[in-house]
Amino acid sequence: MNRILVIKLSSLGDLFHALPAVHRIHRHTGAVIDWVCHDIYVDLVRHFGPVHRVIGFPRRSFAKRGRDFLRMLREEEYDLALDFQGLLKSAFVTRAARAGRRVGPSFSREGSRFFYDEVSGPTNKNRHAVDECLDTARLLGCGDQPVEFPIEFPVFPLDLPRPRIGLLPCSRRAEKNWPVARFAEVARALRARASASLLVLGGPADAGPCAALTAAIGEGAHNWCGRTSMIELGGLIRELDLLITVDSGPMHVAAAVGTPTVAVFGPTDPVRTGPYGPAHRVIRQGPDLAQLPAAPVLAAALELLG
Fold first, then answer.
1. Does 1 have pLDDT greater than 80?
2. Nearby residues of 137 by Cβ (< 8 Å), 6 or more positions away
3. What local confidence, expressed as pLDDT, does residue 219 receive?
4. Residue 150's Cα: distance from chain center in Å?
5. pLDDT in tens, 130-166
6. Which of 110, 127, 108, 130 has its CA nearest to residue 118?
7. Tens of pLDDT, residues 178-199
8. Which of 38, 121, 180, 218 would you label with 167, given CA atoms 20 to 30 Å apart?
């Protein structure tokens, strides 16, 4: 087997969910791996160890740039096209590629199964998304090895005393966010008990809540919201001793680089999309995150720092 095309378009967390399976397939087959993702994630996927070439899908401008995308997609001929997204859009990409065999995931939907030669197994949603993606590696006879996330972020120069604790209060969905006041309560307690350096993290759209959190913490808080690229944020998270976060994409970055994480979950299911691995703690409240007090999050943070 010489060349394999991986299709996993988004989101940030989903890309990391597929990475261990792709790594295992690459190690087992020795094939060159090309990866199709949404164009906003191209720079990130270039840092994935197994990946040779990244092809950006023009999500917001397909009508204008779709022909160029299809030309790039069809420049190479593949022994295998592996769809790890399982949606109609990703199945279209899988079918459009010049591939001898097309495999879709067990969790495929929107009629995407009709575009594949086979799927990786029966649907089983009662497990983590990483394990769902590994079905494809098992189908290809790759065996079971330890899960690894081979990604290499550049070193981020972070000149702050340890312990360094990241605070990430925002996700892309408001119902997944824990109140800033609760984050601040936990942060002030960690500052008092552990003399922690506290780094408030987020993207440009999170500027308001992150500024409010920084002000509410006071001494020892550093506002890094919007000051890093996606790649730089990965390097920064790797330098932390702990990340406290809502259900978000950077939570999966932390799990991939080995940063212990306390994840606050509300309406979403941590069984499927929590931080992967045993070095993390999930605090789940239920649909109304405003009802979650600071105490269990603080206790989990102190345990992981301990």
1. no
2. 21, 24, 25, 28
3. 93
4. 13
5. 999 999 999 999 988 899 999 999 999 999 999 999 9
6. 108
7. 999 999 999 999 999 999 999 9
8. 38
Nearest-10 Cα torsion for 148, 91, 172, 252:
0
Query: Chain-wide mean pLDDT for the chain?
Result: 96
Own/partner long-range contacts of 35-38 (Cβ < 8 Å, ≥24 apart): 35/5, 35/6, 35/7, 35/8, 36/5, 36/6, 36/7, 36/8, 36/9, 36/73, 36/93, 37/8, 37/9, 37/10, 38/9, 38/10
HSE, side-chain direction, 13 A CA sphere, residue 226:
8
Find tokens 């009802």 and name the residue. 291
Closest CA to 139 of 114, 165, 121: 121
Place of tokens 């929107």: 110
- In the chain, count H helices and then E strands: 11, 14
Give the CB-side neighbour count of residue 67, counting CA atoms within 13 A.
1
DSSP characters for 214-258? HHHH-TTEEE-TT-S-HHHHHHHHHT-SEEEEES-HHHHHHHHHT
Q: CB-hemisphere CA count at 13 Å for 237? A: 31
Whether the CA torsion 109, 111, 112, 114 is positive or negative: it is positive
pTM here is: 0.95
Confidence tier at 103 by pLDDT (50, 70, 90): very high
Write out pLDDT tens, residues 51-70. 999 999 998 898 899 999 99
Number of Cβ within a 10 Å radius of residue 139:
16
Main-chain dihedrals φ then ψ at residue 205, nearest 5 degrees? -70, -15
Nearest one of 8, 15, 59 to 35, comparing CA atoms: 8
218-245: burial string, b at 16+ Cβ within 10 Å, e else: eebbbbbbeebebbebbbbbbbbbbbbb
Q: What would the pLDDT profile of 14-37 be if each residue is shown by its tens digit? A: 999 999 999 999 999 999 999 999
User: Which residue did the predictor score with more confidence, 285 or 209?
Assistant: 209
